[in-house]
Each structure stands twice: as C-alpha cells, then as structure tokens.
Specification:
Layout (H helix, E strand, L loop, with lengths): L5 E5 L4 H12 L3 E6 L9 E4 L5 H15 L4 E4 L14 H29 L2 E6 L3 H4 L5 H21 L4 E8 L5 H4 L3 H8 L10 H11 L11 E4 L8
Length: 236
Amino acid sequence: MPVSRSVLVTGGNRGIGLAIARAFAEAGDRVAVTYRSGEPPEGLLGVKCDITDSEQVEQAFKEIEAAQGPVEVLVANAGITRDTLLLRMSEEDFSSVLDTNLTGTFRVVKRATKGMLRARKGRVVLISSVVGLLGSAGQANYAASKAGLVGFARSVARELGSRNITCNVVAPGFVDTDMTAVLSEDRRAEIVSQVPLGRYASPAEIASAVRFLSSDEAAYITGAVIPVDGGLGMGH
C-alpha cells in the first residue's frame, strides 16, 4: 500500500484541476483544493483562496497543514484567460492574467516549498499549456504567462534539486472541459484538424501525467516539460 501524501491542487474545483485532485484521492492521498468561486468538490478538502492575494495563500496553507499536514505534492493549476487581440488588449487584461497564472503560481510554490525544504523532499508540478510554446492569436497574455512557467520551473528545479524536490511542467493541448465546450462546432473541428491524434484530451489524461511526475517512478525527472497535447505542439 503506497504511503498517503498531503497533496494540494490549486484551482481544483472543476475541469483539469478537479480531474487531477480526484486521481490523487483515488490513489489514497489526502487532497486539498483551492477554489475562487463556486462550490468545493465533495470528498476533498476545499479551501477558498484567491492566489492573487498572498495573505489568502498563507491562510489557505495554514488551513491545509492543520487538516492534512505539510504539502508534499503541489499541483499549480489555477489559471484564467482574457482572450483578445493584442491591439484591443488592455493593460488590465494583460496584467491580471500574468498575476493569476504566473505570479499566483510563484506565491503558492514559494509557500509550499518551505515545508518541502524542511522535509527534504517534495514534488511540484505546474500546469502550463501548449499555447505557451506554440503561441495563439488572441492569447498573447495567456501564452506569455504559460511560457513564463517553464523558466520559473527550471529555475526552481535547479535551486531545490539538491533537497530532493522536483519541479516539472505539464503542457496540455486542447482538453474537453467547460472552457472548451463554449467553442462553436466549426472552431472545435478546426482545432481537432490540427491535432495529429485527431481528438481532444480528456481531463483524466492530463491527470495521469501529473500523477506520474509526482510518483517515485519519476524521481529522476526535474525541469522537464511534458506535453500532453496529441502531438499539436511538436518541436517546440
């Protein structure tokens, strides 16, 4: 029986985040999720937290540590989009996406790795996007934030590797979630036509890659970017 670990998934109340949280819970881990709006998912420790506010991040970690011990596996998944073409993009559209997706990830990773350093072990997985490497018209803010995670992860991997802490990135392609369900049939067909495997990913397929990177089997993988994109972003 594998040892039950304290896991935190940010933005874990729906879509990819929820699939990741459920995958850890099914494997017997103690799982907390942060969420900003809506309801906490059943069977998981839901902690309301806006990761753009460092005081809320601190409070969330205290609550999680009291309930299930110091975080041993962190999955930084929380993210937003504000899609619009560059010339129409406001400063606020740009900075708010960076503040959540990149600076928010910095806040939770910084806080989680304090405990990992003391324990001299830990797993950090950041959820980026194929768009961070491939680019996407109308998503300059989102692509910049998701590309930034790669440089951030690799720096963390170099800093903390000697303490047995790994930091990796999973870059999903197009995934069947509420976020992509709003696209028109034509747009969905156009996207799928660019994917060598000819389909969207299921959230569970992203969760499998995250669980692998958090496992003992992946102990010698750090600073890696693992694409789970059906071949969409090849060569980037």
